Amino acid sequence: MYRLQQESEADEPEVEALYDLCFAPGRTALSSYRLREGVDPVRDLCLILRDGEGILAAAIRYWPVRVGGQDALLLGPVAVHPTRQGEGLGAMLILQSLAEAARLGWERVLLVGDLPYYQRFGFRRLDGVVMPPPTNPDRVLGLELRTGAWEGVTGAVMRACPGAD
Ligand SMILES: CC(C)(COP(=O)(O)OP(=O)(O)OC[C@H]1O[C@@H](n2cnc3c(N)ncnc32)[C@H](O)[C@@H]1OP(=O)(O)O)[C@@H](O)C(=O)NCCC(=O)NCCS
Asked: Where is the signal peptide (predicted)?
């Protein structure tokens, strides 16, 4: 049995440790982290899953970004503890957070990731949306929470104003 909660400040060290475990060393050198620097995450959408004993099993975070003068959500990082992968926890976090994002009025989401995994949630390759280099354009994926929300929205992905979320 897992408990879904919003990430609190007290959870932060455990979430960072989970990300360190699940991603290659130097993850914060990735270009997507430049978009997060000095910007608050969208706290309503930063969710964690703990098991019945309170052990952290999975986490997801989101940041606001700007693309072509429009607001967008940057999904990630999302990670599931290696001993719990393949149980559907990643899907649960992604689906719950996307539903909440839609409820809060967000219209479009992007991420850098594997299409074979994210296409099951409706993500498609985003043509003309450019993440800071070096990013493989085939891994820049988008989802519309409002029909047509990515139509005509192109350009470089930019940091949102610091403090704005
Ligand atoms: C990617 C991740 C979040 C998925 O969470 P999860 O709880 O293990 O996945 P789910 O149980 O929701 O889904 C499992 C399915 O996804 C598939 N899958 C997982 N990662 C995949 C990937 N990178 N590419 C393609 N398919 C993938 C599994 O093969 C499995 O397929 P099946 O349903 O056909 O059996 C998790 O494996 C993880 O934390 N990985 C390490 C960190 C990472 O890569 N994060 C994502 C960065 S883009």
From this structure: none
Question: Could you tell me where the DSSP H helices lie in 52-158?
Answer: 89-103, 115-118
Distance between CA atoms of 99 and 35, rounded to whole angstroms? 23
Nearest CA-CA partner of 113 in 100, 99, 125, 95: 125
- Please give the residue range of the domain that contains residue 78: 3-159
Question: How many domains does the chain fold into?
Answer: 1
Are 74 and 36 in contact by the 8 Å Cβ rule? The answer is: yes
Dist. CA 97 → ligand 1 center (Å): 16
Tell me if 112 is assigned to some domain. yes
pLDDT of residue 161: 79
Closest ligand 1 atom, CA of 86? 11
Tell which one of 80, 87, 140 to mutate to probe ligand 1, the residue whose CB is within 8 A of the most ligand atoms: 80
Q: Is position 46 within any domain?
A: yes
pLDDT tens track for 114-164: 999 999 999 999 999 999 989 999 999 999 999 999 999 999 999 997 654
Protein residue closest via CA to atom 29 of ligand 1: 86
Q: Give a yes or no: residue 124 inside a domain.
A: yes
Q: What CATH number corresponds to the domain at position 109?
A: 3.40.630.30
